[in-house]
Every structure is written in structure tokens, then in C-alpha cells.
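User: Round two. Same drill as before: sequence, then structure, for each protein.

Assistant: Same drill it is. First protein:
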Amino acid sequence: MNWNRFLLSGIFVWILQLLLADFLAINTVRPDFIVIVVLYWSLRYGRLIGIVFGFLIGLLVDLSGTASFFGLSPLTYSITGYLGGSLMGKYSTMGLLYFSLAWIGILAFSFLIFSMVQYQHIFGVNTFLFWSKWIATSFYTLCFAGILQFIYPIHKTQ
């Protein structure tokens, strides 16, 4: 395992997140490129690497001042790393459809946790707006993950 690969790709995606996320924002919905990288790392190297690097890059995101709730990014990225690591080596037994639905579900669950904390004030007032924010945030990042599938398919990380 090459640690420089983690460091360089993590810093590159973090800088990409800092520079492009606000530019690509639609209303208050921004794409999350870092969660995609954490998912790729955990699928490739397993749960432990996914959890550790998800936590560390989440801490970096929170310390850079882009997050509004301290600790939310490490939590969601660590959960994504853990659940994504559970899919390591399962592509051949699950098949393409179920494997794809599994990693889409992992990302959607990660965004559900993020939305429950980030938009907790909306949940009590207007639940329809809350669910639409969650779907929009999940769908926007899943679109970028889908585009990335054409360049580097997630099932080839195995």
C-alpha cells in the first residue's frame, strides 16, 4: 500500500472540494467529492483504511472551516468507510445490480445522517423541504459518482 497515493489523492480531492463545491452549488445543495473518494478507498483497501482515512479527511474538512457542525464530516465519512469496506470483495458474489444498489444506498445513508444534523431545524418545521434537501444533496453527489463510473468503474477497484 502506497501512503503517498492516499495523501496526494486526499489533498487533491480536498482542494477540489474547497475550490469547486461552492461554484457548483445549486441553491444550498453542494456536491461532496470527498465521500466518493472515501467510498473508493474503502472498497479498495477495506474497512480499517476507510474508517481511518474517512475520519482524518473529515477532520481536515472540519478544520478548514467549510463545515458548519464540527465532527459531522468525520462521522459521515467514517460511516461511509465502514459500510463501503463491507462491500470489499463482494462484487463477484453480489452481481453488478446489487453491488451498485449497495454503494448507492451507502452514499444515500451517509447523506441522510448529514441531512439529519445539517437540516435539523427544517425537519421540525417542514418535513417535505427536509426530504427534498436530502434527496437533492444525495442525487447531486450521485450524479458526479455516476459520471466517475464511466472513467473508473467502482467495481474495478476490487
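Second protein:
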Amino acid sequence: MAVFRTSLLGAAALALAALLMIAPQGTIGIAKADDSAAIAESGRALLMKFFDKDADHAALTAALKPTPDDIRAVYAAPLADNLVAMYEELFAPDAAIEPSPEHSELLAVFTTTGKLKAGDPALDEFPGGYRKLLPHIVGDVPIGRFKFVEAGEKLGLAFDGLIYVNDRWVLMPKPWRGLK
């Protein structure tokens, strides 16, 4: 498990890597959940789009909204049902993830939900609430945690729950809040 730091200078290389991973159907080509290099590269390439000064951050954010099927592919009921309602509220039409102008680097950790359930060291990189979720995870899909930070910093605008499910990346942050 490694924490990857990517600067805006590396964005062109990530964009090229993302283009190379486009499958014939037009989806990001991730062969299997344990292909960690492809998972990490495609996730970082997606996240680097948020640094583009001309990006439509609301559209980028809206594209990450999980469907009920996405949620149920990762989490068991009744947690999944609670998350459907929670994420519907979270992804309001005006919601936008936007790094500040000072944020010039991306810190990201990618693994799989199966590895988290198995106690992989990457679990320590995720918020503590993920430990409560482990019994409720039903899928084995790529998952990431990321931060938009200032150069050389470790703290910044942080998110968890970037998940590759049903042939696309979605954002399911703080899912432990759906536990009742």
C-alpha cells in the first residue's frame, strides 16, 4: 500500500495513462479488482480533472453520484437503503467538489473493499468509521481515499469512498453514517 502524491505537472502523464486505459466500449478498462496499478491510475486520472481551472466542478461531482444499484453492489441492506437516501441528499444539484487555488497536489490511496475486509494495512489510511462497516461490505471493488493539498502538505480537502463499481467511479463518502 502506498500513498501517491501527484502534482499538476504529472497531470499530463495521468491523462495519457487514462487514455491508454479506455476500453473499446468507452469505459475505463480495469480488468479485475486486484489490478491495483490500473485502479490507482484510472482513479488518479479522474481526480486530476478537478484541478482543471476550466472544469465544470458541479458536472464532475454529479457524475460521481452513486445509483441505488451502485450502493447495493457494495453495501448490504439495511445500510444500503439508508445510504441511498443519504447520498440523494448529499448530491444536491448545486453540489460541487472544487479544490482551492492553493491546492496543487493530489494524495490518494487505492485498494479494494475485499482487502479492507481482510484487514489490509490500507485500512489505516481510511477514516476509523470504515472499521464499523466491514461486516456490511458485500462486494470486492476498488475503493480510494483522496486529498487535494497544497504542495508538500499532508492536510487539505479530504474525501473517502471513491469506488469503482458497475463500470464507473462513484463517490460514497462517510458510509458509516448510514449505520443506525
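The chain is about 30% helix and 20% strand.

User: Perfect.
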